[in-house]
């Protein structure tokens, strides 16, 4: 499901004064409730890394697969960032979180690398497809 489709659903709800909607596609289901801030995404796409296998020296990026609020700190301690610039990360390692519709979604690295740049600050909104990390 594209972000444009979710935006269309929200606009449809607001325009027609529809307080609640449940929408299903092939592999995706979403429930939206404008009267409650506890809406929940039932199934979500996995965070992926943009891969460039042709040249190992080319930077790789980790992009947002959903919209929401980016969190760099651990969800429980909220003290130290999960990763910093210069940190080595392994494939499958959690490097951050995106909170969307009151659900905290892990951002994981799809490959080994070193954090070269963090493009989004902790607590800032993130858009679909936006680059969050650059790995080298």
TrEMBL record:
Q: Which keywords does the record carry? A: Biotin
User: Pfam families recorded for this chain?
Assistant: Biotin_lipoyl
- Stretches of the chain forming a coiled coil according to its record: none
Q: Which domain of life is it from?
A: Bacteria
Does Membrane appear among the keywords? no
Asked if Glycoprotein is a keyword of the record, the answer is no
- Bias kind Polar residues: ranges: 38-54
- Region Disordered, annotated ranges: 38-61
Which intervals hold domain Lipoyl-binding? 67-136
Q: Which PANTHER family match?
A: OXALOACETATE DECARBOXYLASE ALPHA CHAIN
**Name the UniProt record assigns to this protein:** Acetyl-CoA carboxylase biotin carboxyl carrier protein subunit
Lineage per the UniProt record: Bacteria, Bacillati, Bacillota, Bacilli, Bacillales
